[in-house]
Amino acid sequence: MKKIVASFATGMIIAGTAATTVSAEEYDVKNGDNLWNIANEYNTTVEHLVEVNELKTTTIQPKQTLIINKQAKMKYKVQKGDTLSVIANKYGVSVENLKEWNKLDSDLIIVGQNLTIEGATVSNDKPAETEEQPQAQPAVPTKKEQQPVTETKAPVQEQQATPASSKPAASQKAPEKASEQQSQQEKPQGQSFSVTATAYTASCNGCSGVTATGVDLNKDPNAKVIAVDPSVIPLGSKVYVEGYGYATAADTGGAIKGNKIDVHVPSKGEATNWGVRTVNVTIVE
């Protein structure tokens, strides 16, 4: 049984910006339930359910109440200087999720726009300025503000996604946007569930470059291969990974247990850029 529990405070000021908590989500365990089925139903992971409910084991009992999300949804009002990347980093979510939750076709947002954030976790960053403009304006820094940003770690990609005045910036973004549109148009059929995804490469010290099923990644560094827990995704399965594409479950790993996967990429730099993500996986065949 799914329950939505009203939060104690309906409005709060977080990191100097206006954010409103909407609801928290709980679930009453029924006969025949297990953590795997509940995790799949709510698009989360067993590890997340164990952590938020402080469970000692994965055994659950009927009529037990489980927390699905301590903070299910939040409303965020866009401030001057915000980008989707800045907001995603602040609340521990991805840009792709922000666009999906708010049905955004591009990375463009405007001052005063309200965004829905699901399952947000607030970072301890220094509070930002909260001054708002009387009229809605694109949340894009001016040229004077952009110049020092190139020396920081702020994602340049998100700034380039806004309307640019130079042709080179638009041409660099075009392949990525086309790839995103193609990915959105593809709707693979099969069993889908949420996993935690990391990335690895065969070009590392001490790595053989040969997968558990015999695929030589040194000979084909661009091979679309993922490492899986065979008890969750059988070896040899054809899968579709959100943000990665179609791949083959052809490898395993000591740390790959439960709803976790490791995607193969050609270089260490790409593996670092991938980081740790929560994505949907569809077993196609």
Automatic annotation (TrEMBL):
Q: Can you name one GO molecular function term for this protein? A: hydrolase activity, hydrolyzing O-glycosyl compounds
Q: What's the protein here called?
A: Cell wall-binding protein
Residue ranges for the region (Disordered) are: 122-192
Compositional bias of type Low complexity: which residue ranges?
Answer: 159-173, 180-189
Query: Quick one: signal sequence residues?
Result: 1-24
The residues forming a coiled coil are: none
InterPro entries from the entry?
3D_dom, LysM, LysM_dom_sf, Resuscitation_pf_RpfB, RlpA-like_sf
Its Gene Ontology cellular component terms are: outer membrane
**GO BP annotation list:** peptidoglycan turnover
The record's keywords, sorted A to Z, are: Signal
Against PANTHER family, the record matches this protein to: CELL WALL-BINDING PROTEIN YOCH (PTHR39160:SF6)
